[in-house]
Protein 1
Amino acid sequence: MYKLRNRIRELRTEKNISQAQLASDTGISQQSLSFYEKGSRKPKIEAWQKLADYFGVSVGYLQGIEDKFEPVSELEHQKSHDAIWKGMAKTLRAASVGTIGWEEAYQDLKRYQRKSDELRFEEKQETQQRMFDLALQTFKRRESNEKR
C-alpha cells in the first residue's frame, strides 16, 4: 500500500467541515474521502479537481506537491459562481415540476449557500441575496399554483 501525503484532511479540519459534509457537498463518498485522507487510495483527477475547487486551492497544493498556497484565479472563482447558479436553477426547476420534493430542494439550496459562503470574491453578498430572492419567488409561485 502506498502512502500519499495530501492536504485534504488539513483543509477540511481548517474549515471545520466533517467528512460527511464534504461528501455531501462534493458527491464523493465518505469512504473514499477517508481513504484519500489516509493516503491509502489515490483520487482520480476528477476527484482532485472537485476537491481543489471546493477548497479554493490548486490541485498541486491539495496533493501536497506545491508548498506555497496560491489562491485560485478570478476565472476559476467565476466558474464556481456559475456552477452554483446552474445547480440552483436545476434544483428549482426540479422542485417546481415535482421531480423532487420541496424539503429536498431546500436542503440543496442550503448546500449551495454553503458553497457560496466559500467563494472569496466581492460578489458574495450579492450572490447570496439573489439566491434567496430567486428561491423565495419560486416558493411563492409554487404556493399560488397550489391554491388554484
Note: The chain has eight helices and no strands.
Protein 2
Amino acid sequence: MPDVSDAPAPELDDDVLVAVRDLSTRFFTEEGQINAVEDVSFEVRDNEVVGIVGESGSGKSVTALSLIDLVDSPGEITGGEVWYRDAELAAEFAGSDAVVGDHVDLRRVPATVRRSLRGSSFSMIFQDPMSSLNPSVTVGEQIAEAVEVQRRANGNPRRTRSRTQGYGLGRLLIDAVLPSRSYTDEESHARAIELLEQVGIPDPAERADEYPHQFSGGMLQRAMIAQALAGEPDVLIADEPTTALDVTIQAQILDILRELQESGETSVVMITHDLGVIARMCDRVGVMYAGEIVERGRLADVFDDPIHPYTQGLLGSVPDLEDPAARLQPIEGNVPSLLDREMPEGCYFADRCPKAMADCRQPVPEYDGTASEEHAVQCVLADREYDPAVGLNDTDGVIDDTDSVTDDTDGATDDGVVSGE
C-alpha cells in the first residue's frame, strides 16, 4: 500500500459521498509498466450521477475497478486516496490518519474492510452481462445469492463479513451432500423476484427460473442491475451499461438508472464513451484521455464551455441532428500507448492536438476553468491563447467553433442516442 501518511487532510463537504484524490493504477506486464490510471481525482455527491467519458482505452473501466479495489494481478493501485463517507466506519478507525470527520480513506484500511463494502456500499454493473452471469444457474438463483450474501453480511460484525458471511467450508460440504439444503432461502428468492420486477422484467416470478441464455440482451442488462441492487448500495457504478443494446432498450435502461438515482438512495458513476448518455444522465462529468481526467466540471461547464481540445474534438464528432449532412470533425490519430517507456512527455494529447504548443511538452498542471468554480482543465489553453508561432503541429486548428457543438449536444440530451466515440 502506498505511503500517504504525509498527505494533507482533504477538505470534504458534508454532501460528498466519495472523493477520489490522485488515484493511480499500474499494470506490471512482461512488456513493461502500463500506466492505466494517472493521478485521477473526482467527487461523487449525494443523489447525483457523475459521468466519466472518453475513447476506448482511455482508462475509464480501470478507474471504476480501482474505486472498489477489484484490480487483478498484474495490476496494482500504486497511489491515491478514496474517501468514503460512513460514520460507522469512521468511528471504527477513529484517531487514525485514515479518518477526516465521517470520511474514511479506503486505501488506508485493511483489504478485508474494503471487500466488506462491496455490495452494501459499492456495487457495479459490468459491461458484458452474458459473461458476468453463470450460464448454469438460473437468473433468480444468482440474484437470490447476492441478496443472501448481503443479508448474512449485515448480521455479522464488519471484521468477519468479507471472509465467510457466516457460511464456511463446513456448511458448503453439508449443502453439497444434502440436496434439501440450499445457500439461499425463500425470503431471498422473494426479494430476487421483487428486484426483477423493479427493473422492469415482465413476469418476474417465471423469469426467475430461467437461465441467462433464455434472456435477451436488454433483459440480461436489467438482471445485472437487479443483482447490483441486491445490497442496496450507496454508490452504483455502471460500466458501459448500454453497450450493444438497441436504441429503445438503451433508453429503457437509462430510465431505470435515473429512477434509482432520483429515489434519493443511490448515487451513480456512469462509465461510457457515449456523449448522448452523458448529456441525458449526468450532473457532472470528467473527460478521460490516456489515463488522465483532462477536463471536469458540471455538465454545462464541459458541454457549453469546453477548453481542452480533446473535449472539443469529442463534441465536434457528434452528428448535428438539425443538419445531418454536415461534415463531422473526427479527432485524427489514436490514443497513445500507455506503456511507461513509450508515453510522451507533457500532455499526452499533444501529438493529436491542432492547438499544441511548445509548452505542451512540459508537465501540464490543472487550471481553473472559466465556466464555474467546479470547472477544471489540464491544458495550457486555460491559461493563455493559442499562439501559432509556437505551434507543434501543422494545422489550422479546426475545432474552434464550440457554439454549434453546444447545439448538437442539446439535441443529444433530448434523444440520448448519439454516440460520442
Note: The chain is about 30% helix and 20% strand.
Protein 3
Amino acid sequence: MNIIKNITLLFLFSFSYTQISYNSDIQPIFNNNCISCHVNGGAYFGNLDLASYEQVMEGGISGNTIIPFDSENSLLWQYINSSYMPPYGSGVDYLTINQIDFIAEWIDGGALFESNVIEGRWIPGGFENTMYIFQDGLRYTIYNIGGDFEDLDIDDAIPNPNPYTIEGNTISLDLHFGNIATYTIDFRCDGQVVDFYYDADDDWEGLHSSMFREDFDYFNSECNICSIYNEEYCSWLTGCEWDYDLNVCFENFDECFLTTNDILGPYYFEDAPFRSVIAHEEEPGQRLFISGQVKQSNCDNSISGALIEVWQANDDGCYGIVEDCNTGNPENDYYNLRGKFFSDNDGYYVFESILPGYYGSRPRHIHIKITTPNEEVLVSQLYFENDPYCENDTWCQDADDRIISLQENEFGLNGEMNLIIDSFESGVILGDINFDISLNVQDVILLVGIILMDFEPNDFQIYVGDVNIDSLIDILDIIQLVNIILNN
C-alpha cells in the first residue's frame, strides 16, 4: 500500500470488531482463578506472576508464556486449555471454555493492554522497511532496509523523534520546524489497524494513511480489510480488488502469479553504467524496445525505484567483456549491451537494445536482474515468441510467463513484459535520501553531501537524489526538494 497517495473517500461502511481490554476482560479472569498461586513475583509457580499486565508479559522461567498473535504456542494458553492449570486440588475452578477462548482471542489479537491505543510498534502500510514506535508522547522512526525490527528499539531510531498529543480521536504530530500535522484516527480489527484521516482544516479530504501493528498479518487474519472501502481506495490497497458488477471491494490474494526466476548465467557484471539505451546507434541488429511495469505481489500496486539490470549477447550471439566478438560494438564500449536503470514513480520501465542472436544452442534471450529498494531480488531471463530453439531449452520451457510477443513498427521491434516481484514494497519517494518516508531538512543535507561528494551514495540514493528527473544530481535538485518541502 502506498501511503503517499492522497485519497478522497466517497463513503465508508461501518464495521465492528470485539474490543478486548486487558484490565476489564483478562485481568479479572486471572484474579479469580490464578493469582492465589501466581502472585508475589510468581514465587510459588515458575516465577510467573499474573497480578498485572507487565508481569504477565514478562513471563516466567518456562519459556514463551505469551506469544502475541500466536495463542497455540503460548504456554499460558496451552496450560489452561489442557486443564493443567489451575491444578487439581487447588480449590480454584477450572476456566470455562468461554474464558479459555477469550484469552486465546486476546493473545491472537496481539496481547495488547488496550486495543484502541496508539502506543506501541507500527508498520506503515506499504513501507515494510520502516517502523514507528509511539512511546511516552514521542513517535520514533526506525528504518531497516531488510524489514526486520525484532531486535531494534528506540535506541536505534533516527534522531529527533516527533512529539505527539492525542485529544479524543485526534492526533497532532510535531514534524519540527513549526509544522504540525493533525489527523483523525480510527482503529479497526481489534486495534491492529489504525487509519489516519485528514483533519477538517486540511486542504485534503479522506484517508491519509494506514498503519499495522508489528507482526499483524492481515492476509491471514479474520478481519476483512477490503470490504469497507470504495473503488478508489480499493484500487491501491494490497490484496484488494474492485468488483465492478457488485460495486464492492473484495480480498484477492490468490489470483496473481509472480514472475518466475531463471539462471543468472556466467556473464553478469554488476558495474554496468546507468543507461536505458544499451545498444549504440550503429550496433548491428534489429532495434528492440522492451517496456513494462514492476509490480508488487498482488499484481496491482507498482514498485517505484526498482533497480533493473540487463545484459545480453550481440546480434551474432557473442557476449562482450568475456568473449572476443568479431562483430558489433562500434564505439568500443567495454560494457556494450549492458546497462542498469530504475523503474519510475509509477513502476514503469523501458529500455532500448537490439534483438540478441543465438548463443550456442540457446534461444534468443535477455538477462534481467531486478532489486527492489527493500532488497528483494529477482534474477530471470526474457525470451521471445515462436523461437524454434525454445523447444529444446530447459530454461525456456519453464518460462511461459516470460515469453514476449514482438510487434514491428517503423522504429523496430516492440514488446511488453510486466515484472511481478515477491514484495509488498511500494518503493521510494524522490528526494527521500534517508528513506524515512518524509521529505525534510535531513534529506536536503544528505543531497548536498552527495553533490559535494562527502559520501558515496548507494544506487537507490542516486535514484531519489535526482528529484527533477533530468539524470543529473545538482543544485537544481536541491531547489526542487526545498520547494516540495515548503509547499507541503
Note: The CA atoms of residues 49 and 55 lie 6 Å apart.
